[in-house]
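Supplementary Methods, section 5.1.

A reviewer requested that the exact input to the structure prediction be made available. We therefore reproduce it here, unchanged from the version used in the analyses.
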Amino acid sequence: MFNLFDWYRSPSGGNKTKNTPTTAWVRALHDFDRKGFAFFRDTLDASFKASVNLSAAGTDGKVIGSTRWSYTGPTGVVATNSFVPGVFALEQNYPNPFNPSTTIKYQVPVSGLVTLKVYNLVGQEVATLVNEVQAASGYETSFDASKLSSGLYFYTLRSGNNVQTKKMMLIK
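The structure derived from this sequence is encoded token-by-token as follows.
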């Protein structure tokens, strides 16, 4: 396989550092117009704005297109590490019991659609915390239950054929 682009980045805007594929990076090959593409996942530090210039080259090495991509800050769900877990796991929320917010950590071993939902005792969905395609990694998200009443709640993680449910206690 050959790369159609090199990935450079600079947290400070100064000298660029070339990232090269390693076993720690997730690689996926796709067939798009019979050309080989390499896709990489890397970890960005959310404490600063980062930008990436990306140029694509033809088989003769000439640039055929370029784009600039920027990352400006964190989202609600944070990848907690860059390792690829070997198991599907939903951890117990912390703190538990909680008032009014808690943190839930989980791991998905395969990239795909991930949902994390909260249900009350009668099985009614009261919150959707995650509903997106995620790369294989460990994650954490917070749950703000300030608009809910005290009681026992269940949270369920789904990804592919995997499902895990845990319970948590909201005390106001």
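Residues 52 and 69 are 5 Å apart (CA to CA). These observations are discussed further in the main text.
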